[in-house]
Structures are given as structure tokens and as C-alpha cells.
Amino acid sequence: MRTTIRLDDDLLREAKRHAAATGRTLTAVIEDALRETLGRRREPGSRPRLNLKTVGGSGTQPGVDLDDSSALLDLMDRP
Q1: Other beta carbons less than 10 A from residue 60's beta carbon
Q2: Cβ pair 59, 53 in contact under 8 A
Q3: Left if phi > 0, otherwise alpha if psi is -120 to 50, otherwise beta: which for 59?
Q4: Which of 3, 21, 64, 78 qualifies as a FRET site for 47, CA 20 to 30 Å off?
Q5: Sequence-distant (≥ 6) Cβ neighbours of residue 26 within 8 angstroms
Q6: In a domain, 14, yes or no
Q7: Which phi and psi angles does 3 have, rounded to 5°?
Q8: pLDDT value at position 28?
Q9: How far is Cα 34 from Cα 3, in angstroms, rounded to an integer?
Q10: Which of 1, 5, 31 is nearest to 18 (CA)?
Q11: Quick one: DSSP state of residue 60?
Q12: CA distances to 5, 41, 64, 74 from 61, in Å
């Protein structure tokens, strides 16, 4: 199927370089990248549950957000 897409100029240049370096067409490179990205999709909840081992204590301190890496680094740098 033929279609038109708009790509960032730098991304397009990089994709063209990659295609030339690997002896493939730009179409083949874009198709493979799209297949790989779509292949990584998972249904919500399909990831195995991760159990973290803890040693003592009673969990995180009040106000600590484990999803905020910048704030965690600030807390760890405090004396």
C-alpha cells in the first residue's frame, strides 16, 4: 500500500543513512521499525508482577514518591 507520512528531518536523514549502510530500502527500514514497535506492545496487566525484597523498616518515608527520580536523587544527596 502506498501512503504519505511526515517525519522529522533529522529522523529521516538517520533512517536513510541506516538504510544505505545496511543495503536496504527506506521502506524496509521504516516497516521493520514499525513492526518492532508494535510487537513490543503488551496488554495492560500482562507483565509479570515484580516483588521487591525489603529488609526491615516500614516502607517509604512520608512524601517520598518512587516515581519521581529527580526528587529521589535530591533526597539521597542530603546529609
Answers
A1: 10
A2: no
A3: left
A4: 64
A5: 15, 16, 19
A6: yes
A7: -150, 170
A8: 96
A9: 14
A10: 31
A11: S
A12: 48, 34, 6, 14
Domain containing 14 equals 9-39
State the cell numbers at 32. 521493520
Q: What is the DSSP letter of 59?
A: S
Task: List per-block mean pLDDT (blocks of 10 residues) for the chain, which spans 79 residues.
Answer: 91 96 96 90 70 77 83 82
What would the grid cell of residue 29 be?
A: 527500514
Asked if the structure places residue 31 within a domain, the reply is yes
Structural domain includes residue 63:
no
Residue that has been written with the C-alpha cell 523498616 in this structure: 57
Amino acid, single-letter form, for residue 59: G
Distance (Å, rounded) from C-alpha 55 to C-alpha 39?
38
Alpha carbons 73 and 1: distance in angstroms, whole number:
49
What pTM does this model have?
0.51
